[in-house]
Protein 1
Amino acid sequence: MRQHKTLKVYLLGCVDFDSLLTLQERALQEIHFQQDESAILFVCEHPPIVTVGREGSHYQLSGAYHDLKAKQIEVRWTNRGGGALLHAPGQLAVYPLFPLKQLGIGISEFRDRLQRATRSAAGEQGVDCETCPDDSGILGRCGQFAFLGAAIKSWISYYGLYINVSPDMKLQRLIDANRFDHRVTSLSATLTREASMGSVRESMIRNLAQQFGYPDPHIFTRHPLLHRVKKKVYVDT
């Protein structure tokens, strides 16, 4: 029987992007130091911000600079995979930090397991879906509602995936969120009813735990490094 195979899941609510980056860096160090199969999963939403991954370009933002500036939405270039994405409340951000070497999982298999977990979670909501041909996310009948944006450091995964559950779609469509002409949509738009963030969150956690072999994840509703000030979340450094 394998020892020390634990998954800590942190349900963080709405967390500003910089704080989440700091938490990821701390978690990467923790997992690297442990050298076992222990893993960490951050699940949250973000205040409005645009991030651009390694495959992103200025072209994806070319029609939105004025609107983004008017709405005071920052643009951040990051080391994750994928292109430009607009994060906002109603979009579920999922950050799995898994020790791939200890789990015996390669990069392609890691991506496939993320996609299978997302497809299973969407199916539980009643959404038939398929993997994007370019491996960038998940498509339903109305378009793309999930986006992969993972990265690997020292064979530990970080960043992850983003699921449009019920965000403001007018805000989402300020930018060209993909480079392959997939229409951007949400689970709520696909279902023509409000999708439950809590239900999608629970389903994603359960399916990810199953896909990566963590039978008994430990759930936490706060993180000791986070504290709330005036309804915003900051991280102690």
Protein 2
Amino acid sequence: MTEHSSRLVVLAGPTAVGKGTVAAYVREHFPEVWLSVSMTTRAPRPGEVDGVHYHFVDDAEFERLREAGEFLEWAVVHGRAKYGTPRRPVEAAIAAGRPAMLEIDLQGARQVRQTMPEALFVFLEPPSWDELVRRLVGRGTETEEEREVRLTTARHELAAAREFDVIITNDEVRHASEELVSLMRSTASTGSLAPHPRRNEN
């Protein structure tokens, strides 16, 4: 990835598909990739570190930043917590020519498309619906009511795959992560998406 050739990559997909896990793998194994750290008003989950996985803030601080125009995108997710992408770090990374990636939800991806249409939008899909349900239930971080809300949302989110430039199936974290970084590298060097057509569209 050469200087001044970076292109913002926006990774999105349905709830529980493993976006955060893929992003964590990229962070650990591909340190040349700059990953945006989102801000949220929800409480940390077990193992999450403030400033690494998310910036955890209260609602008042989130609203202060939102009103000041400090978010590239923001949304209320599942009718509960607020999430947002701080604008300035993203712009600084792109200006420095670093390969930059946002890992956000579908609402956020749509907002970024309005402000940065030149970005590359990648949809992470599960191998199957049953596997998505298994992953959501297996992580055990939501109540039964919250899981039902997330699964209802996920059905709508899966239908949005056609809005994206590229589709990657998260059948295995390492494979999906390496495919994503390979895509970023080829896009940076060629400036096009030719080597990577859409996958699994049916």
